[in-house]
Write a structure and sequence with these properties.
The protein contains 5 helices and 5 strands; from the N terminus they run H-E-H-H-E-E-E-H-E-H. By secondary structure, the protein is an alpha+beta fold. The protein has one domain: 3-Layer(aba) Sandwich (Aminopeptidase), CATH 3.40.630.30. The longest helix has 15 residues. It holds the Pfam family Acetyltransf_1.
């Protein structure tokens, strides 16, 4: 019950930098079910930070409870957009309103950056996330295709 009360209070969203990779990488690995080697993920994140990417930690009473990334771009179909990436909330913090608070923070921040839209991808098998995103008024606009080269 103490954890639930903490989450009902305001969360803190903190920018994380490439130097903080050991802080957020374990959460990203959990999201990805450890499907990519740690050294490869570290190299990819180092590259991502050189582009229009930001990483954010979600904190509850100073404890890292979740993580997400943000990409900023202009797209012909959406205008200036904030793409939310690798959203992960630790299991013990789920279903307590933390995601709702984090996404409200994202929307406010994206508007401050001049964004007109927010978009994201979700793993096909992650049905709880689909329900959450639809409750947040995201609509499915297409399929994301990936081909290994």
């Amino acid at each position: 019950m103490l954890l639930k009360l903490a989450i009902m209070s305001k969360i803190t969203v903190t920018r994380l930098y490439k130097e903080d990779i050991n802080t957020f990488l374990p959460l990203v690995q959990e999201l990805m079910e450890h499907s990519v080697a740690e050294d490869l993920l570290k190299a990819r994140f180092a590259e991502m930070f050189e582009h229009r990417y930001q990483c954010r930690g979600i904190y509850v009473e100073g404890e890292l409870a979740g993580v997400f990334g943000l990409w900023f771009a202009v797209r012909h179909y959406a205008g200036k957009t904030c793409e939310v990436d690798h959203v992960y909330i630790k299991p013990e913090y789920r279903n307590q309103g933390l995601g709702k608070q984090a996404f409200q923070w994202i929307y406010d921040y994206a508007r401050e950056q001049g964004c007109e839209t927010s978009e994201l991808n979700a793993y096909v098998h992650n049905f709880p996330s689909h329900k959450f995103y639809m409750n947040e008024n995201y609509v499915i606009k297409g399929y994301h295709f990936l081909k290994k080269l």
